[in-house]
Amino acid sequence: MSLLPFVQTVARGQGRARPLTQDEAFEAMQVMLSGKFDPEALGALLMVLRVRGETVDEIAGFTAAMRDHSGVEMTADLDWPSYAAGRSRGAPLFLLSALLVAQAGYNICLHGWNSHQQSHASVRDALELLDIPIGANAAPITYLPLEDVAPKAFDLLALRDKLGLRSCINTVLRMWNPTHAPATVQGVFHPSYRSLQAQAAKRLGQKALTVIKGGGGEFERNPAKDIQVFGLKAGTHHQETAGPIIQETRKLHEPDQPVDLIRLWRGQDQDDFAAATVISTAGLALWTLGAVDGIREADAMAANLWIGRNAQQRISA
Questions:
Q1: Could you write out the three-class secondary structure of 196-214?
Q2: Within a 10 A sphere around the Cβ of 124, how many other Cβ atoms?
């Protein structure tokens, strides 16, 4: 099959073009992942959707095809995608949050690819420092490199360097959930995507989801601000506000205030704001998992986990 019919559908012109249905989007993504397409048609389709904006049906269909094409043989309780670029990023504090959640007895699957990251913000470098394994099926927490587990999708994502703009592939990969985990957390850079991703997840049968405008597009919460939380609880849409847990006027990532992840984790560095970032992000993840009923209670649970973070044994939730 060619991508041409899908390009014609979305780009015929004013009054004639229409969005793809979910089934059409599924078929189009199958073609994209097959690698058997004209590159000009692929660029045209992605950029038309970029200019017009993707619909819930399109993201749901693309994501369903991605899941069918690139699943993995492992299970997890929580899916945690990481696909943000690094221009506005500092140290990946969310990795410490994921470690806290793993200590609470949950299995976590991190997956991703991050472009244009400086050394202090590198997710891949931090994985090794924090002893987070890659592709480990039986580990409490593991990371799946996109280029290894879904190389065709990686090729689609890498088109950003040629097209000069992000595409719907960024959204689809956040939605991917390769282990079919029952709960997922997602960070976005543009707030408009929070509702889109929540609606598409519901269309796909997701039951537990939290989406926030996170630091640099990652699932990472600013602990000093009100954060709008979108997503699903028991399959029902919700929108809530997570209040600040620290009173401090500071950006989430200050270039002149680098954070050493290892020293922070070991308690060798004292940085109350960075610690609050880790705790509040872990709190939202625990709340998504249903560890406790409320966000404040989840923050308190995460704070206790932070105090006991260097214990060798995982803490039961």
A1: HHHHHHHHCCCCEEEEEEC
A2: 15
